[in-house]
From TrEMBL, chain A:
It comes from Nitratireductor aestuarii. This is Carboxypeptidase regulatory-like domain-containing protein. InterPro entries: CarboxyPept-like_regulatory (IPR008969).
Automatic annotation (TrEMBL), chain B:
Keywords: FAD, Flavoprotein, Oxidoreductase. GO terms for biological process: steroid metabolic process. This is FAD-binding dehydrogenase. GO terms for molecular function: oxidoreductase activity.
């Protein structure tokens, strides 16, 4: 935001703009200082920017000749996180020109709330109850313990609401979470729901409401079993711990290289993958119980000469 | 002259040496001190200036790597006094780092040995030849034809051989057999031949590796190395002797054999020190001194003291061996070359400004060259090119940087800037790397999304690390007839039909280098790229995200509790992340939608590999590196490796070899050793 256009005083002065007008906490802020002089003049020097606490926020060189463009010094840096408007200053350090310190305004947007949703099964059978874990966090470090959220369905209707708990998710320090059980929609297919995180009224600084899309794959009840036998094409040995993806169904091969996936009849793409193999892929119609032999070819391992070629 | 006496004394001490360890410890004491040799020696200055020389030698070599040490030994063998200046703290350059896959040919002694089904003279090789005799049946003519073959076109539709400098190639082909013998005479041991290295021709098998045998003692003369020195005692450590862990060579030698550049560089260095070559380390050559700016002889060089210092201890790094080292710390020196200067300081792969001549996007310093920790910032900074251009040298093969498939590529090792090496803690320069990285292989690329500096996906991830095959025996898709079926100089090799069939370049690298919302004038850098994944990916893969593989302090690995935290950490702490990853949150939200739908409308990932949601905290980012590996464009040389000026004349007293030289699209060692051999031969014969 440009500072109020001050009356041009006799003598050079700096005009500083901060862009964007409202910057996200920890986002990028671009400070541009323009040296206005009554007459074109050669100036070499540096503009030093100071934040609201008076600490140096950075420096940028100002150099060249005034005409035809005004001299500018540009600083790109990370914005602070404290929301609201703050007054910063800028000073020109130069042997060629004396000028007043300039004030300008930096405005930081309300804190975002990080919403994380996990543990949703990749395939949810119509009408069953399924789990979902919802976690909230303030990336700027505010504690969000007990903050609330709403869960909206595809039509925007609230289907659940709740709060996150008092304990952070294991392995984290400030991701507060809750696990909920939900009723699956009765209509088969893809559903886009949303979790809306709501700022607490008790929060010390303003936070912005945040909405995250959540995707559900609702399926019919399984009818057939697809058995996958993964084996190494060169040795015929079973390939254990291979990932099996028959979208939206997922599984793993066991020690015998076998995985069984229950699914409704239909057309599927089957992937079996595991380092260091190329992903095995097969398309087809599955209408009855069947076995698929997944021949796994080693991803042509680069020889040293190729890798370090 | 006093200096001559010193040199003689050094040689005598060297001759007395018996075993390698004791010898080189004793050698440390005999290291030439600055006081002994470093005083200014005023000589009648050949360039008629009044300035004094600080040192003078017959032959002065800039760079102690592949081409440099070879040239040094060769010139020394002819009786010349030789000084090698190297900007690094130790010798070997990229040769020490290399895989030692050393492609020569033309009927060289190792091809002949394998053809005859013989073992090596020492009897280390116990396995039969890997290649059939017919595949080894080579000649200088065939090699020359191969490396100038106009008809060969690679999988990227580039022509690797047709632009090679013909006179230089002829000399190279003729000197391949004697160079192989020369390397063997200087303690280098070669494995069985197995195929050929990139740019080494399509008709015959020409490349063995270099090996040593595991033993109780590291003894170059006996051909043994301890497990500790070889770096095979502990999977997570390398040694000061071997920056990269040596690899098993059972397949090409027999049990207990190990191979890589260590088995090439250390023996050559040993021999050079033993024969009385002098070395000035921590010393960067800057400029050439010529009698007149663009006329007359090159009479010497200027060189600057640039110590490599451990960032934590503040101590100067010291070379593994010291014999023949000159401990000279004055900031600037003028060093006279009575006979010749040989430029062997490597290429320009680490100089973003020079690289950008070929690909403007590669001006971004975010992308390093291979082995940057070992070599330091001065390792591949184009000094030879810059210095020679200043005195009127010409260039050759500048377009050839674009016609070698690995000149630049995306590495499968993530989470380290120096992503083209296996160096582990234990080597003094690991500290400049900070982490060894996680090699996820090609298959690992299905586990994450790759985003650019603003947090947007830019290509089908699983296609990013793919590289077209090299142009080398036995064919690798580079010609319709593979192996012995290949017909040199046949127009069908480059028929449009064949090229259509064999073309296999995915442009993922170019998408990674494309401008994006964070690219700003004047350079419009594309910026760093990141692999982003979640805790589930760790569970799927078992990737070990711990030191020494990753390091939370070095800016190439991040772990965070939310995607927003992850973006903020990268922006705050990665040295080249100039803008925030403003789109990362949205990208992941969209991606998770694609995963649920089983289709990626942007990049069609679902066609190649399964897709996984990124949803379970914590979240991770590993750097993905675009690496500029080596250099092909460079100085123009004739068949004697003399540098040629813009008028087509040799610059008297100036030679070059290795990656400093252009006009030969051959990868690596095969080029450097032979050119060093040729340069050393002729430099020593100068009047
Ligand atoms: C990881 C890796 C694996 C490789 N594997 C193979 C392989 O298997 N087969 C193969 O053929 N090739 C391989 N190469 C390539 C090969 O190592 C190089 O192409 C070859 O070493 C180049 O030889 P050179 O003499 O030009 O440079 P280098 O061997 O790099 O030597 C250059 C020397 O010059 C010094 N120097 C640089 N600038 C200055 C200066 N201004 N003043 C003084 N000294 C200076 C450097 O410190 C260095 O010691 C590999 C490379 C790497 C990095």
């Amino acid at each position: 935001m440009e500072t109020e256009d001050q009356e041009v005083e006799v003598g050079p002065h700096l005009v500083v703009t901060a862009s964007p007008e409202q910057v996200e906490p920890f986002g990028e802020i671009i400070l541009t200082a323009r040296l206005e002089t009554p007459e074109p003049m050669d100036v070499e020097g540096e503009v030093v920017f100071y934040d609201a606490s008076g600490a140096e926020a950075g420096r940028a060189a100002l150099a060249g000749r005034y005409a035809p463009e005004p001299l500018t010094a540009k600083l790109e840096r990370m914005a602070p996180s404290e929301p609201g408007s703050q007054t910063w200053t800028a000073r020109l350090e130069s042997d060629d020109c004396d000028c007043e310190e300039a004030e300008f305004t930096v405005t930081i947007a309300p804190h975002p709330i990080s919403v994380t949703v996990w543990d949703i099964p990749s395939a949810i059978e119509q009408g069953i109850t399924f789990p979902m874990t919802i976690g909230l966090k303030c990336p700027c470090g505010c504690e969000v313990k007990g903050w609330s959220f709403r869960l909206l369905n595809g039509e925007g209707q609230e289907i659940a609401a709740g709060t996150v708990g008092d304990e952070p998710w294991p392995g984290t320090t400030s991701l507060f979470y809750t696990c909920i059980d939900l009723d699956a929609p009765s209509v088969e297919g893809h559903h886009e729901w949303a979790v809306v995180a709501l700022p607490s009224e008790e929060a010390e600084v303003p936070h912005a409401e945040r909405k995250l899309a959540v995707h559900l794959n609702v399926t019919r009840a399984p009818e057939v079993t697809l058995r996958i036998e993964a084996f190494d094409a060169a040795t015929n040995a079973p390939v254990p711990k291979a990932k099996v993806v028959v979208h939206p169904y997922r599984g793993w091969t066991n020690e015998e290289g076998v995985a069984e996936v229950r699914l409704p009849k239909g057309a599927y793409t089957v992937f079996v993958s595991r380092a260091p193999y190329f992903a095995f892929k097969s398309n087809g119609e599955i209408t009855e119980d069947m076995t698929l032999r997944a021949e796994m070819f080693e991803d042509r391992e680069y020889s040293v000469s190729e890798l370090w070629a | 002259m006093r200096k001559k006496d010193k040199e003689r004394r050094l040689e005598e001490e060297a001759k007395k040496a018996l075993s390698r360890r004791e010898f080189f410890k004793a050698g440390a004491a005999a290291g030439v001190s600055a006081a002994a040799l470093g005083g200014s020696v005023a000589v009648a200055s050949a360039d008629h200036s009044e300035e004094a020389w600080d040192y003078e030698y017959d032959v002065v070599i800039c760079g102690g790597g592949c081409a440099g040490i070879t040239a040094a030994i060769r010139a020394r063998d002819s009786g010349a006094s030789v000084l090698v200046v190297d900007q690094n703290y130790d010798l070997g350059g990229r040769m020490l780092h290399s895989g030692s896959f050393l492609s020569l040919g033309g009927g060289d002694p190792i091809q002949k040995r394998d053809m005859a089904g013989e073992a090596d003279a020492e009897g280390f090789i116990t396995v039969p030849p890997v290649e059939d005799p017919a595949e080894l049946d080579d000649s200088v003519e065939l090699l020359f034809t191969d490396v100038t073959d106009w008809s060969v076109v690679d999988g990227k539709a580039q022509s690797p051989y047709r632009y090679n400098e013909r006179e230089m190639m002829r000399a190279w082909a003729e000197n391949c057999p004697p160079t192989r013998q020369f390397l063997m005479d200087n303690y280098v041991r070669f494995t069985r031949v197995s195929g050929t290295h990139g740019g080494g021709g399509l008709s015959r098998a020409r490349a063995p590796y270099c090996f040593l045998m595991l033993g109780d003692k590291t003894d170059i003369k006996a051909g043994t190395i301890t497990r500790e020195d070889a770096g095979v005692a502990d999977f997570e450590r390398t040694s000061p002797f071997a920056p990269v862990q040596m690899e098993d060579a059972t397949q090409f030698v027999g049990p207990d054999a190990v191979r890589n550049g260590v088995a090439l560089a250390r023996p050559l260095e040993f021999s050079a020190r033993e024969k009385g070559v002098h070395f000035m380390l921590h010393r960067a050559f800057i400029d050439l001194i010529r009698e007149k700016p663009f006329e007359g002889r090159v009479t010497g060089i200027t060189a600057e003291y640039r110590p490599r210092v451990h960032p934590k201890s503040g101590e100067r790094l010291e070379s593994f061996w010291q014999l023949g080292n000159i401990d000279e710390r004055r900031p600037n020196l003028r060093i006279r070359a009575r006979k010749a200067v040989i430029l062997a300081s490597g290429g320009h792969a680490g100089n973003p400004e020079v690289r950008s001549m070929f690909y403007p996007a590669m001006r971004d310093p975010a992308f390093p060259t291979s082995g940057s920790a070992l070599q330091g910032p001065g390792g591949q900074d184009a000094t030879a090119l810059k210095a020679a251009l200043k005195i009127g040298a010409n260039l050759a093969g500048m377009q050839q940087n674009l016609s070698y498939p690995t000149t630049y590529h995306i590495a499968t090792t993530l989470g380290t800037r120096d992503a083209y090496t296996n160096m582990m803690p234990g080597h003094p320069t690991f500290v400049f790397r900070g982490s060894a990285g996680v090699n996820v292989g090609n298959a690992g690329f299905e586990e994450f999304i790759a985003v650019n500096q603003v947090g947007k996906r830019f290509f089908n991830e699983v296609r990013l690390p793919k590289r077209p095959a090299g142009n080398r025996y036995p064919g690798d898709g580079a010609a319709p007839g593979r192996g012995l079926e290949h017909k040199p100089l046949d127009w069908r090799n480059c028929s449009a039909e064949w090229i259509r069939q064999s073309y296999n370049y995915d442009h993922g690298l170019d998408a990674a280098l494309a401008m994006n919302e964070g690219s700003r004038a004047p350079n419009y850098y594309s910026g760093p790229i990141w692999a982003i994944f979640d805790e589930d990916a760790i569970e799927r893969t078992g990737w070990e995200l711990r030191f020494p593989y990753v390091n939370e302090e070095n800016g190439y690995f991040f772990k965070a509790e939310s995607i927003e935290d992850l973006a903020a950490k990268i922006y705050a702490r990665h040295p080249y992340q100039r803008v925030p990853l403003a789109y990362l949150g949205k990208t992941i939200e969209t991606w998770n939608g694609y995963v649920a739908a089983g289709a990626d409308p942007e990049f069609e990932r679902e066609k190649d590999a399964p897709m996984y949601a990124i949803s379970k905290p914590p979240f991770y980012a590993l750097s993905i590196m675009v690496i500029w590996h080596d250099s092909y464009g460079g100085l123009r040389c004739n068949g004697r490796q003399q540098v040629i000026d813009m008028e087509g004349k040799p610059i008297p007293g100036l030679y070059a070899g290795g990656e400093a030289v252009g006009g030969f699209n051959k990868h690596g060692l095969g080029k450097g050793h032979v050119q060093g051999f040729i340069a050393g031969t002729h430099a020593a014969q100068e009047g």
